[in-house]
Specification:
about 350 residues; alpha/beta; Rossmann fold; 2 domains; 7-stranded mixed β-sheet; 4-stranded parallel β-sheet; about 35% helix
């Protein structure tokens, strides 16, 4: 009997459980066994963290958020923090041990579900001889090789709902509300939710913004009798001649750049330049939580089933990619080469401009 192992790495995204469900059901329909590796690669590092997945164990998980296997964005087996007997933390490469456990368990394939960081690790294991298939996972929708990623639609829906609710409180107090959404260096979440939520201003990483232009839009609202405004800003947006706003996380002697804080900066500048009562809101991990939308559930199920088909065909070191109307297999190395940015001539950008939304330029 063939055995496969599935892992979920990086930040969680609505739809992960649907992928797991599809992999298990599709594998068992072929007479295969499926095991789940808890917390990324921990199940392959410590076999006690491996869990047998059966159709009965996954029967009710499609509609739930998060991942039943757990996830981590600090579990790189090629640079794993390990505490020694003296209580000191050191970095070790434990990839060989994982390879040994993979072979010892008799797995013929590893389905790695993750974003560009997790897929890069999967590719490195493929280079060491592990048969790997990647499934793209990111709410940011910033993987160039696939038309869409699951979790994105849910994140946009969550952000849009929040923006909708802010209209009433902003209008009641004649306030400017600045909403920060996720997306890293891509503005897809901000653009989609901002247009759908009726924002006055949308600031995305692909277009450096001028706060004076933003304030002009807010003052223009005043001239037309609208005494409030909604500003949606992507966490990776930056001002002209400025840099992205981030929080520094020093860990093990290295600095990891964590985006965040741009909404507060923008709100402070708007308040000073316009005199308007201005507040900011960071949606943060709220965008990762909750049940996946119908679109994301179906997309995640399609990704999972397609991954098993690739395993059956022996198409390893490839990632499943959505290429409407079907699914394609793209080499993982090619898939993680570049991130998908918002083109400046994109129809959504043109739509935003034509319906009067300011993009900060």
């Amino acid at each position: 009997m063939k055995k496969i192992v599935i892992s979920t790495g990086g930040g969680d995204a609505p739809g992960l459980n649907a992928v797991i469900y599809a992999v298990v059901r599709a594998a068992y329909s072929r007479g295969w066994e499926v095991y789940g590796s808890r917390s990324g690669y921990m199940g392959l590092l410590d076999l006690d963290e491996l869990v047998r997945l059966t159709p009965e164990k996954v029967q009710d998980i499609t509609s739930t958020g998060g991942t039943i296997l757990g996830s981590t964005n600090k579990g790189n087996p090629f640079a794993m923090p390990v505490e020694n007997l003296a209580g000191e933390t050191q970095i070790h490469d434990v990839s060989d041990r994982i390879m040994e456990n993979f072979k010892r368990m008799g797995f013929f394939c590893h389905i790695a579900v993750g974003g560009d960081g997790s897929l890069e690790i999967a590719h490195r294991f493929a280079e060491k001889g592990m048969p790997v298939i990647g499934v793209p996972k990111t709410i940011d929708n910033d993987l160039e090789a696939t038309r869409l990623t699951f979790g994105f639609d849910t994140a946009v829906s969550t952000a849009t709902e929040a923006i909708d609710k802010l209209h009433s409180t902003a209008k009641s107090h004649d306030r400017v509300m600045v909403v920060e959404v996720m997306g890293r260096e891509s503005g897809w979440i901000a653009l989609n939710s901002g247009i759908s939520g009726g924002a006055d201003v949308i600031l995305i990483p692909e277009i450096t913004f001028d706060v004076d232009k933003v304030c002009e839009k807010i003052n223009e609202n005043e001239l037309h009798g609208k005494h409030y405004a909604i500003v949606v800003v992507a966490e990776g947006a930056k001002e002209k001649h400025g840099a992205v706003v981030c929080k520094d996380d020093c860990e093990l002697g290295r600095q990891e750049v964590i985006l965040g804080g741009i909404a507060e900066c923008v709100a402070d500048e708007i308040k000073v330049k316009t005199g308007k009562d201005t507040r900011y809101l960071v949606l943060g991990h709220l965008q990762r939580g909750g049940s996946p939308t119908t679109f994301d559930r179906l997309l995640a199920l399609r990704f999972g089933a397609a991954a098993v088909r690739l395993a059956e065909a022996g198409t390893f070191d490839h990632m499943v990619a959505l290429a409407p109307p079907g699914m394609n297999a793209v080499p993982i190395a090619e898939a993680i080469k570049s991130r998908k940015k918002v083109p400046l001539d994109n129809d959504k950008v043109l739509t935003a401009r034509e319906i009067g939304i300011c993009l900060g330029d």
